[in-house]
Design goal:
The chain is an alpha/beta fold. It contains 11 helices and 12 strands. The longest helix has 18 residues. It starts with 19 loop residues before the first strand and ends with a helix. Pfam families: Aldo_ket_red (PF00248).
């Protein structure tokens, strides 16, 4: 078992994340730019809503997310919050100009370079601390090994993270990943505290591999992100132009989402409320982290997480999946 969860139930790790976390991609100008003031107000709204787990990455806006998050959190009592960032990509200065080609509305003043080496990972954390203005991060995730080179991630990067945890540089380690199959390989290969699983354990879809049960056996906590499946489940009524996996949702997926919305409505629950709370039904899931780009979105997510959902709805959903 990983140091951060040693001999404890996965739902009560020493790094208490709370039920709802704040995801920092949006304040890194994912898809569209938001003003600095709005970004900082959004982070403050998360703090005021009682959120104490914040996740970011160098990838998010070429460091902008880390800078904005740190601008707020460095003034908060350090022992009162948990922050995670990611390694695997280092930012190199780039004078080529233009806009970031990877979906963030920021100038391309840097370029991302994959680097799973020990030197690259240590440098990545040092650079993140400088942008954040903090003296340590609590959790380091290997970011997207399934996108770059899964086997290199397992054989090279994860042992480095285990080493950094043993040194006390970070309290917990994990992977941030989109593939449940790849996540399971990482869990079997390394002593991970956490898996941040994006979009693969949601109200709409659950993985066909025994990832969550295996995480429970190994006391590896799961942080669920992408609970709205790229916005598909983010509204009570599913519109024609809804996105799924960052693209236009195909007709059969729209139909499934609308059937879920109708079932939720039968029990007096809005689809996004059920979607946000669903992952926590599995005992391996220790937190659901959701992004936001405005204080209003933060308040909505916080309210949804606390809104009562009758057990009868969960039973009906379980019966539907059977």
């Amino acid at each position: 078992m990983g140091n951060a969860m040693n001999s404890l139930d996965p739902h009560t790790p020493p790094l208490s994340l709370g039920r709802l976390g704040f995801g920092g991609a949006g304040i890194g100008n994912l898809y569209r730019a938001i003003p600095d003031g709005q970004a900082l107000a959004t982070v403050l709204a998360a703090w005021d809503a009682g959120i104490r787990y914040f996740d970011t990455a160098p990838h998010y806006g070429l460091g902008l997310s880390e800078q904005r998050l740190g601008a707020v959190l460095r003034d908060k009592p350090r022992e009162e919050f948990v922050i995670s960032t990611k390694v695997g990509r280092v930012l190199e200065p780039d004078s080529g100009g233009g806009q970031d080609p990877e979906g963030f509305d920021v100038p391309a003043t840097s370029r991302r370079m994959w680097d799973f080496s020990e030197g690259g990972i240590r440098r990545s954390i040092e650079d993140s601390l400088e942008r954040l203005g903090l003296d340590h991060v609590d959790i380091a995730y290997l970011h997207d090994p399934d996108v770059h080179d899964l086997q290199a991630g397992i054989s090279e990067a994860l042992p480095v993270l285990e080493k950094l945890r043993a040194e006390g540089l970070v309290k917990a380690i994990g992977v941030g990943i989109n593939s449940a199959e790849a996540a399971l390989e990482c869990v079997e290969a390394a002593d991970l505290d956490l898996v941040m699983l994006a979009g693969r354990y949601t109200l709409l879809e659950q993985p066909d591999v025994p990832l969550l049960d295996r995480c429970l056996e190994r006391s590896t906590g799961v942080v669920s992100v992408g609970a709205y499946n790229s916005g598909l489940l983010a509204r009570p009524d599913v519109p024609e132009d809804a996105h799924y996996n960052y693209d236009q949702a195909p007709p059969e997926v729209l139909e499934r989402a609308r059937a879920l919305a109708a079932l939720c409505r039968d029990f007096g629950v809005e689809l996004p409320t059920a979607a946000l709370q669903f992952p926590l039904r599995h005992p391996a899931v220790v937190n659901v982290t959701a992004g936001a780009t405005s204080p209003e979105q933060v308040a909505t997510n916080a309210a949804r997480m606390e809104s009562p959902v009758p057990e009868e709805l969960w039973a009906a959903l379980e019966e539907r999946r059977a």
